[in-house]
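Now produce a polypeptide, keeping tokens residue-aligned:
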Amino acid sequence: MEKSNYMAFLQEARQFIPQERIYTDELRRLAWGTDAGFYRLIPQIVIRSEGEEEISRLLKLAGSHNLPVTFRAAGTSLSGQAISDSILIVAGKHWEGYSISPDHEEITLQPGIIGQRVNELLAPFGRKFAPDPASVKSAMVGGIVMNNASGMNCGTHANSDKVLLSARIVLADGTVLDTGDSVSRAAFEVTHRDFIRRICTLRDEVRADGKLAERIRYKYSIKNVTGLNLLPFVRFDDPFDIIAHLMVGSEGTLAFLSQVTMKTEYDYPCKASAMLYFKTIKEACRAVVAMKKLTGANGEWTVKGAELLDWKSLASVSDPVFLKYKGEICSSTLPGVEPGDETGLTAVLTETKARSTEELRQNIRAIEQCLSAFQTYTPVCFTDKPEEYSKYWAIRSGIFPSVGGTRKPGTTCLIEDVAFHIEDLPEATAELQQLIARHGYEDACIYGHALEGNYHFILNQSFSSEAEVKRYENLMNDVKTLVADKYDGSLKAEHGTGRNMAPFVRHEWGDAAYEVMKAVKNLFDPKGLLNPGVIFNDDPKCHIKNFKPLPLIPLDTQNPAAKVNRCIECGFCEVNCLSCGFTLSSRQRIVLQREIARLRQNGEAPERLALLEKQYRYPGNQTCAGDGLCSMSCPMGINTGDLTHIIRQKELPQGSMGYKAGNFAANHFAGIKSALRPVLGLANLGHSVLGTKAMSCITKGMHNVLGIPLWTPAMPKAYSIKSSQLTIDNDTLRNKNADKDSLANGQLKVVYFPSCINQTMGLPKKSPVEQALASKMIALLQKGGYEVIFPENMEKLCCGTIWESKGMLDIADRKSAELEAALWKASEQGRYPVLCDQSPCLHRMRETIHKMKLYEPAEFIYTFLRNRLVFTPTDRPVAVHITCSMRKMGLADTITALARLCSSKVIIPEEVGCCGFAGDRGFTYPELNAYALRKLRLQIEATGVSIGYSNSRTCEIGLTTNSGIPYVSIVYLVDECTQPATVKLNN
């Protein structure tokens, strides 16, 4: 396309789209040129859309300039359907609206809401979202529907096509049609009469061709997303129903989906799963075929899911049964197994569901009886315990990223997706396994939805030479022959046609069906501007072009940051990345650093390298919270924050002014804290003299102009622990609350290390509590009968988080070592537990100090004080913020349980993860904090909460600023709602 066309488009688009939502810079175009697939195209323009009217105007504008448009939601698609070298329109973070029908059997959704979020919304009503792809925790509804993604428990009976009721779409000419609204339908019949007539003509032509109609029914009796969806022409009479269902699986080639109404699915309350192991893949498939035939008294399938995992899949996740099997065949002989041959072991993760416990038992007995005809390697053992079977399903969901993470450096991870008719499953599966091995893919694995005859196979592929590209091409040609020609299966079952399978659509379907697909495409998109190259592509080799490079970032393999080189850019991390949708996501940071590393290594474009490094600074570095929550949704546990710390370290090399300042602060930490207290006092004085409004206005202006940290009314006053507090009257303590024998034996002592923040920062001017946290913590420990010990030279100590967040990792480790030595001494070599009142600090302490038992307040109270206090819960609603560090330490349930001991109404705000304060970034980049908490205030107001609780002082400052209510430590809530257990005994 002519550059002038894009310039004209931009000029007009900027009249109704704010500049901050239009990206044309080198950095962000590259960042958005990547999705979870193995192709890359760099868009000319990226637009983050906010509403239907914008989409309508953008499509009209693109049409007038003859510019192609591609739509994108979460970017977790795998076949190259969410990338563009033209205009990319993102419909994600601003498209999260929903409504649930009064009977809860229908839900209306915008395309940007994540699938797992839909399940969370429906769970209280005993309903769920029917499609359940492995990416459901990251994929958005728009992508799930437009790819007809189904999943592990979702066969053809409950995929998007079967549960869709109506769709609201924006056509290429900008027209908005709501197929579920009578007024919209009537208007469309007037304005698009010929369009409706053509739909009806196509319907009648398909039905008149008996052979074609029968082929359509047969092809869709199993999972199939190759090409456009033709099933609506034989399922529906109403042209508007046909239009709505044509959207399913269309991958953005026909229209933009702005809203969809779908049936919800009953969520069975009783569930059980078993991991079944077989010695051969054929035997496993025969067992699946047998289980498929099981039905209950009500006619429902007894087995709801059966996921096959071949030996390589099991090996990739270090499955303990596989490791045991491997050891056995090496040291002894198993009947029917060649010595040393580990390649036969196959697992089938099987699930059954029921309305009652008795029905569940009946189901299990029926499955066990069915399986008695087959030889399993281990006994059949079902579990109905969620904490046990959830681990099985987590393994299954993480197969793709886990196998991809084991690939050789520099290779690309590919995932293909096929389906066979169930009766062909045993033979076809074995042949597929042999075919892959024949092409030399020794590390390839097969896994997937065996109950539906649907398999994925993963290839770790290099495209560095023509020979490697040819090998992949030959493989795909043989797969085409096996799947489409021999077994008449589906070359794409649920991952979308994309660019990956576009050359084979006609081959699989035949000329008659393909011509109908083309007729539909020409009707909806006569100019061919919607996602060109996807599904329909005249280039027979488009599937072996535009491969995405995965260059290595040079990192010390011993450094945790080196894990980023295992990233396959699946996007699972983004749901936990607070800056995703604001600046860059964790995945995009890795994408960009890979390209920067490549340019540094080959030296081919120094100007582009310098530009990317410059443009990366704010969105990539300064607005990365480094909180590490991204690692919790990454199957490989990759923490992009570790990479950010390395980048910051390189920007502050030893000898630089910044490093020298950091080192000075570390060596004179007590003095630095003493100097900070007058600054806090001065700010408080200004607040008192000027008032909140004037102080806020002045300091905001100074922040914007001079870049100084932003003051807010939540800013605390200065504080220091009084020397008298450091010498506890233990005799008084013994007399009041404690078990004298316990104290005499030294059993009720705790080393308390108040974080440097809580040693320095007290309460804000308008605080709902009267004592600073350190004082309150001491009082609560005394109330529980504990003698408090403080480490020596406490003013000089720090866990090192401050320096780690700035990239001064060596200084951070030095401070951690100093703290460890002081705590080791104070705890009498680990005899007593250690308590730190700040959860982020405690998290770092646990990462660097391993020879003592370390606690933050919630876990310490719940573990040691719960039975020494009498809780009298309040009926006042309270909000609880679970910090990133609590989530990473696995303590989210602990702080929630503690809060529920104190209040009958505990509110955990939804879709609020990391608060974005990130140490001091809430002061220096408050916009990050505001974006992270954008969904908090409305929930607080709706629930009538007047105070919130957490366990991180800096997080509480940001939460107070952005919620409209004060947040304080959970310690205050516990103290308010408890009295010593001895008081109860005396009464």
Notes: DSSP finds 44 helices and 29 strands in the chain.
